[in-house]
Amino acid sequence: MSRIEPRTLKGFRDLLPGPMIAREALVDCARGVFRSYGFLPIDTPALEYEEILTGKGGEESDKQLYRFEDAGGRKVALRFDLTVPLARFVAQHSSELGMPFKRYHIAPVWRGENTQRGRYREFVQCDFDTIGTESVVSDVETVLVIHDLLRALGFERHAIRINDRRWLARLLEVNGMSSRQGEVLRLIDKLEKAGHQAVAREIEALGYSAGSVQQLLTTLSDGTMQGFWVNGVSEQIAAVLDGALAAGVPEGRVRFDASIARGLDYYTGIVFETRLDDLPDIGSVCSGGRYDDLASLYTKERLPGVGASLGLDRLLAAMEELGMVEKRASTAPVFLPYFEESRLADYLRLAAGLRAAGIGVELYPEARKLGAQLKYADRRGFAKALVIGEQEWAAGRGQVKDLAAGTTREAPLWNASGAPHPELLARLRGSADVSPS
Amino acid sequence: MSRIEPRTLKGFRDLLPGPMIAREALVDCARGVFRSYGFLPIDTPALEYEEILTGKGGEESDKQLYRFEDAGGRKVALRFDLTVPLARFVAQHSSELGMPFKRYHIAPVWRGENTQRGRYREFVQCDFDTIGTESVVSDVETVLVIHDLLRALGFERHAIRINDRRWLARLLEVNGMSSRQGEVLRLIDKLEKAGHQAVAREIEALGYSAGSVQQLLTTLSDGTMQGFWVNGVSEQIAAVLDGALAAGVPEGRVRFDASIARGLDYYTGIVFETRLDDLPDIGSVCSGGRYDDLASLYTKERLPGVGASLGLDRLLAAMEELGMVEKRASTAPVFLPYFEESRLADYLRLAAGLRAAGIGVELYPEARKLGAQLKYADRRGFAKALVIGEQEWAAGRGQVKDLAAGTTREAPLWNASGAPHPELLARLRGSADVSPS
Fold first, then answer.
1. Searching chain A, which residue's CA lies closest to the CA of residue B142?
2. pTM score, two decimals?
3. Contact A137 B363 (CB under 8 A)
4. Do A412 and A292 share a domain, yes or no?
5. Claim to verify: residue B162 and residue B290 sit in the same structural domain
6. What ipTM, to 2 d.p.?
7. Closest partner CB to A20 (pick from B16, B42, B68)
């Protein structure tokens, strides 16, 4: 038989159990935080009509779109983000949804990106947005969600940096650069990565004088809002900072940064980025902003909103680099070797009893030698093994091995009514106090 | 501006918060059960090389494949199930994975099916498999996982029906029907839906005598294994039934059913289906079986396994029909109206304190009239509202409204150290006993 080489497409990857366990934990954590603020889950199709997606994310994302004709001759494409599908979704269902509408959406997106930049062509996005209100309370909440999330993941040293597009627009106006605002903002967005000089040259190349470019960049690095009192913008940024403080975010974790611009065209108000103090080079792990009118391409209803996108893969990479991810390839805490073949029914009954008591247990499926089974358990990283051979079955006592510590303690297997003994449960849970309560 | 009609592709759908909350609950439940047996999560790309997917699921799934050429000229396709990607995955990574390997995979798949049959072209599959062992213990565990899962979801009346392909093969041999075994098995698989007579006619049409067809169908409906002692097959089915009983599955929830055949070619041992007693017509909600060699197309390593696939959408539909799904469109239990504008900092601080105590709370983003906000809360289905106006802020006491019962109770807002008062927490959690402990 001719075999097919088992391989994944360039830019695509399998997730093995270790990384997938870490991703599931991160997603669970994010969902828990989103839900604690009342954000609601939704899902949309991976495939959309091409016309829904093209022209929404700019020329680059059009180029990166996976598009084709389906068997029915429809022009279709895989979504490249979760924001454009959200716009389509709220336009289509706004009357059913009710406003304000707070949603989260955690799902894969596809972009035919240049993989040489270390990017994947399939990755999971994790977005949350509040649609249908212009209230600064939602801006505050967006910041709070980011902060809660990072804290829940174990980060203590991070900064959410906020700015306002209206302030930036006014700044460009004052410096005579309104005519090419989009391009200048995208260059400002590169300041940190490319540096002051390179960005200055590029803005000058758009046709602006060296003097006005210098003045612009000086104001940005100065980082104060003095002299730019624009329609209450300073008050709004101050309201976000105050709101974060009121909700208990420590001083400095949320701060004004004049150089935050974000590259996307659709932001019209507050914009933010989040850096980790310990890993500034990996860039922003959570970014977003306020937009006036997300769904105007699909509906005449005006739907302003504010939201952010969590960089799931980037955060995971950061947590790995900082040693915050426990290396494990097991999901059940207890390993139960099966080596007394005639006792299968007892192993099954005990495993079922432990699971009913809330203790996950993996029973090895083959009656092999104990050493081989413990080697398997070690490789998978189980915390505990419960070793029971014929002698232990007969005596009604098992050996609880702490696989990391290398210690073994005995415990009775059953209580009077034939359920797992409380002392056994306590030992397997790792409680210090093993006296039955 | 010319608008684009917001619409989804035929056969695709959006999931609004209500159904998505129910799906998330089901997926969480399934993950919890899988993990309690030590199954590990993995993920694979939605897109694969076309050659990986074609010819693996038969002619029909080839026809239903979404395939196209990517920008790099590669022939690619969207996966139509999670089993073929699993085969490719274990062939590619077997040395890293270690055997036995128990995995679960919950992810969308795509099939260009005829939507007139009420089917969707994108749906989530929820699979679990044990690879690398032929032990009957894994067959038993597969049955236990299905049973635990249904029980965890609240089902009490269901039957997991098991059969063995080897027994069926022997039965066909005895009746002289081995030559077209695959076709006859697919017809047997239709017995329940199409009925005895229709299936008899179709088997006869394959060229078999009415007498031998009658004898075959009589044996199948007789439902005993007498006379077909084949290489210990009966013992193996008995071992699965015994194992399930030993693990505490009530008698009758797992039973031998001679007519279970499953349509797929690759099964070689035990096969099973799961019916709900209260909704037999919706068909099997969880099906699977044992296969000798899943990955032979990609590797010379022999990788036997056993597994099953949970019909997520079918189960959700069943739970809805049986009134087992709580209709809710809120994820936080508590709604906090914001109507005293000058007190924003207090609302934010209290909401943060409640979340820190583990109580999810949605703060309305705009200082609108209380009535409008409570209408919003009612529509979203919040359990509780915490109403605090200027008078309540000044007095340090809030009103806890039980929105379903229509009752209101007062509670102090803060304790001495400025955190939410224990009595408030107890009222919001809905405990009967509200005395601080």
1. A365
2. 0.92
3. yes
4. no
5. yes
6. 0.92
7. B42
